[in-house]
Amino acid sequence: MSENITPAPVESKELTSFADLVSLCKRRGFIFPSSEIYGGIGSCWDYGPLGVELKLNIKNSWWKAMTDREDVEGLDASILMHPRTWEASGHVEGFVDPLVDCKNCKARFRADKMDEAQLKAGECPTCGKKGTLTEPRNFNLMFKTHMGPLEESASIVYLRPETAQGIFVNFENVQQSARQKVPFGIAQIGKAFRNEITPGNFIFRTREFEQMEMQYFVKPGTDMEWFEKWKEIRLNWHLGNGLRRKKLQFHTHGPTELAHYARAAFDVEYEFPIGWQEIEGIHNRSDFDLRRHQEFSKKKLEYFEESTKERYLPFVIETSVGCDRALLAILCDSYRVEGDRTVLKLHPKLAPYKVAVFPLMKKPELLEMTDKVFNTLKKNFRTTYDESGTIGKRYRRQDEIGTPYCVTIDYDGVADNTVTVRERDGMTQQRISADQLVNYINDQMLAWKSE
Ligand code: GAP
Question: In whole angstroms, what is the distance from residue 274 CA to residue 237 CA?
Fold first, then answer.
């Protein structure tokens, strides 16, 4: 095997449509359509062996960034909550989309997303018939179910449409048990459900998804300052996952875009193949939620500030990122076609496998050392093993799933205790001492930078 090779760069093409990514995700076990053997179910997706690893790594990256801070505590609240929660939060009344139906082809649309001229003419965007659309009517996005055996109105509960409310109703429990002082935050990762009218674009908009939310409780008057601070912290988190700066932008909400609870808000947007779209929302929710929960529960939720002897309802700065949407942005950003290879240039900390180990051939002389190297690496990194096909083919397989380092054991290596490390992005190859391997990969991972 040749030593220390740096191949000439080839043209690198980015992802231009979700279709290529959907196909790679299915083929390599990142993401499958849900219940596929029954023909699938609209907008539901299952994470396969590599997808679940990638997702866990993203969640860990977020959880660590939040809870490594002394001023943020974790929480895992239940999905089903007291139905009054959703009256207090405004979701029963306000979490609605205006819906129109086509009487001819039965297609359904969000009136606020339709072309104005078409809407005026009642023209269906699917079948093209004019005058077939119903008047817009409000459609609540919350999924309803019943608790207990009786399907009556008294037993209605909702699947939470955001994780945030589990945090608000636990504000006092967390503050007191963790002995936190304002300002402090509560972080949570969990499933949320919305009966979206127009789901789609792969995992971009689904009816079941995971949110990573943090509510930061601050003294009124300091809220805009904290809003700005969190804006920067959150942008840096996305950059720290390898997303390129040129693909990220802020979008500040105008008065007509603000959610019912928000005083000020902006989105972190990523440039997907379908254009710039929100991946995270940062909201100044004022004291809206605590005030409403105080009113509806009749339980005082004021905070007493020891140093000033003041009592107040804290304001809340919320950071809310969809885990699936962040994952989609990360996959899109890392996807490249270079010559005959497709490669995911994932940040090594997020890659499902960090290292792949290959014996040059399936010969006992090589397998003994390969086993040793594999076992050492496995103790330090998530490592995979492959002995089938040519080395070139094995590189291609690992490129496609984003494994940043491939380690090959050959005859020269057995003779002088060395291995070849091939790096994914530049395809450079380095021969190094097997004893140095763990340190070498650790150093490489720490030094990794996106383009
Ligand atoms: N608690 C505030 C809140 O839920 P949001 O802007 O409605 O705010 C926050 O949602 C994030 O959740 C979005 O930026 C997006 O990443 C994700 N999200 C929302 N709806 C989604 C859906 N239907 N499918 C996938 N992700 C979604």
Answer: 23
Residue 2's pLDDT is 45
* Rounded Cα gap, residues 267 and 322, in angstroms: 12
Our answer on whether the CB atom of 97 is closer than 6 Å to any ligand 1 atom is: no
In the reported structure, the alpha carbon of residue 184 is separated from the centroid of ligand 1 by a whole-number distance in angstroms of 23
Distance CA 321, CA 324 (A): 9
Q: What is the pTM of this model?
A: 0.94
Pocket test for ligand 1, best of 31, 34, 211, 284 (most atoms within 8 A of CB): 211
pLDDT at 3: 60
Output the CA–CA distances (angstroms, integers) from residue 21 to 17, 37, 201, 335, in the order listed: 7, 21, 11, 8
The CATH label, of 3.30.930.10, 3.30.450.20, 1.10.10.60, 3.50.50.60, for the domain at 18-81+169-335 is 3.30.930.10
Pick from 312, 303, 258, 305: which is nearest to 285 by CA?
258
Q: How far is the CA of 153 from the centre of ligand 1 (A)?
A: 28
- Say what the pLDDT of residue 216 is: 98
- d(CA 85, CA 165) in angstroms, rounded, equals 7
| Ligand 1 pocket, mutate which of 62, 241, 278, 284 (most atoms under 8 A from CB) | 278
- Ligand 1 centroid to Cα of residue 209, in Å, is 8
Question: Of 252-266, 337-351, 355-369, where does mean pLDDT reach its minimum?
Answer: 252-266
- Ligand 1 atom, smallest distance to 267 CA: 14
- Mapped onto helix, strand or coil, the DSSP state of residue 58 is helix
What top-level class would CATH report for the domain 353-447?
alpha beta
Local confidence band at 168 (pLDDT 50, 70, 90 cut-offs): very high
**Measured CA distances, 114 to 67, 118, 119, 126, 276 (Å):** 42, 7, 6, 12, 18
Domains 18-81+169-335 and 353-447 belong to one CATH topology: no
> Domain extents for the chain?
18-81+169-335, 96-140, 353-447
